[in-house]
Amino acid sequence: MNVADLIVKCLENEGVRYVFGLPGEENEDVLFSLERSSITFVPTRHEQGAAFMADVWGRLTGKAGVCLATLGPGATNLITGVADAFLDKSPLVAITGQVGSGRVQRESHQYLDVIGMFRPITKWNGSMAHPDVAAECVRKAFKTAESEKPGATHLELPEDVAKMPVKGKPLRAIRVRRPDPDRKALAEAASLLKVAKRPLIIAGNGAIRKRASMQLRELVARCHIPVVHTFMGQGAISDNSPYSLHTIGLGLRDFVMDAVDQSDLVITVGYDIAEYAPHKWNPKAQKSIIHVDFTPAEVYTHYQPAVELVADITATLRELGALFHPHDRPFDTAWYAPVRQRIVDDLASYELKEGEPFTVPGVLNILRTIMGEDDLLISDVGAHKLWIARNFPVYQPNACLISNGLASMGIALPGGIAAALQNPKRRVVAAMGDGGFLMNSQELETAKRLKVAFTVLVFNDNDYGLISWKQRASHGHETGTRLTNPDFKKYAESFGITGYSPRTLADLKRQLREAVTSHALCVIDVPVDQRVNDALSQKLGPLARED
Description:
This protein is α/β, with parallel strands linked by helices and 547 residues long. The chain folds into 3 domains: 3-163, Thiamin diphosphate (ThDP)-binding fold, Pyr/PP domains (Rossmann fold), CATH 3.40.50.970; 183-339, Rossmann fold, CATH 3.40.50; 349-540, Rossmann fold, CATH 3.40.50.970. Helices cover 39% and strands 16% of the residues. The chain contains 21 helices and 18 strands. It has a 6-stranded parallel beta sheet with strand order 2-1-3-4-6-5, sandwiched between helices. Helix 6 (134-146) links the parallel strand 5 and strand 6 (152-158). Helix 9 (212-223) runs parallel beside helix 11 and helix 13 crosses helix 20.
């Protein structure tokens, strides 16, 4: 057995089902070992697509997705997807090849310091420079990637080491139990909660991991506390719930901010400040905050919790709810009910009418009637992302995936492939703008080859629409954003994939339903009017820049 064989046995031991990547000379030993294993190697058309597939696999399963590349340009092409997993807290393990150890001391063909490049975008990364460390390195990579808060790790395998004989076996994967919350901190949090008049919960990315959603829903039902979701926390409680105030995070002063302003206590659950900066919802740094998370709070002027409950989120929510006894009076819902009603009414106002231009929120209203509560919508990044976060109600955890840590364009189409592989019976829609679509549209061939079924929904405005929206807000006009596109319907058909291009409302409704319910690989090209973006700014105020 050589080192490559041992590494693959370690991957099997970790429960890996797929490895996404590109073949290269320096990783060929791993490829041939994979061929003899129970793991399926998925050749992709670009390393970025492979990394995004591993990224989304990790978010959906909680188990690290794996991507593989060769040295040099193969490794550099992985970086965007690995960085996305790092900031989105998605477990991922990247493996890259490298030149033989006899070439690293001098300038060499395709040699780069890959370990140094990956250091800022991983929780841990290392080189398997000796056969005896291979099993330990793989176990460490997975344990670190999957531990709270999850993220990306990276392993480098020099080609000469991959061929070396080795004795050994995979290290046992042991489930790590996280601690229960501190009793004194719980008592302090309960005291703050009992004297509050208008408490509010901000549910972040961590609220949908490790079954935390179930305990959050029980706490909310018992106490009648309203919940605001970050883009990545959507579905922590159902948007059908009377306690849901939908989503926070839009760069506009949306209706939900009225409730945030009125609150006298904010309980953050699994909240990452990379999702939405605290100064945007706590501008005066005066909010009383209870921090509930797996890790301590970040040091931030506008985020100074009165109490930090640093422990397993599920256990913390269960214990906190138990301290709120049935004879305690639930909180009054009258203060936030009007805010929720205003949000619900506004979403309904975007209903499309025959003869009017298509808009993203109007299309989302139709899509919501077609998709079931457990179906999955994956959003790319652009103007449509803001509309999906704001206008697409979500009812279950991980029923809407949005990249909002790194917020990288190009994630949705590869993400759709990973989602379809992870659960072939689930209906999946990957929604993207025309800009994001053409960043990784080559992965349509990968999807077709794998025979996976999902719908690629392209919102087409021949523009980098979000940037145009922001430029108009800041300068009164846009520059450098206009695009031209091919015929996306014909483009899809050139891959042997069914394409749609609706031009009437009747066609849109029929073709959307046909595509989503067909359980086939489809591309639907929907032209959208940008004026709805500016109209939202006029209604809510100027679109703020990210900071």
